[in-house]
Amino acid sequence: MPTFSTLINLFLTFFKVGAVSFGGGYGMLSLLRETVVSANWLTDSEFLNFVAVSESTPGPVAINMATFIGSSQAGVLGSMFATFGVVMPSFIIILIIVALVNNLIKYAGVQGFLRGVRPCAIGLIVATAITMFLSTIVGFVNFETTLSVDYKGIIILAIIALIGYIYKRIKGKKISPILLIVISAGLGILAYSPLIFK
Q: Model's pTM, two decimal places?
């Protein structure tokens, strides 16, 4: 049974992440990674696994991440407190906007704020993608680590990109992300199964 202080810590941690994250779930990943890794809740490798699972399950990635991380730290109650914490800031802010201001987007100050936040959100998403790529494919965590290129991962990435390209050329539209996840999971099982490749 998790302690009350552990549950409150999870709630407050995810509340802070939810309160200062712009750009949706992907924009939140960078801050979330820094928070949970520095708190020694997860290693970089475990965090990447959680991201993969969150992407493969229905729902917003930020909420899925909060649920999984909370569960890993304090079971079902931990997942509830973490999820509630990450959702609350957005809920409160949207509730205030809806209750107090009509047609808020028309104000020049609001438009300026959104224009200023967009580049930051894009930068956070790109930084997270680069960090995940370097950590997963190249094995780079920091300058003290020895690089170990994951050739199987590179091949899977190339196959998925090729499938997406060919499908778009033939059908004229993008392939379903769900189908790509299923194909990628199948390729991962084939490539990394100890029974097939030792």
A: 0.64
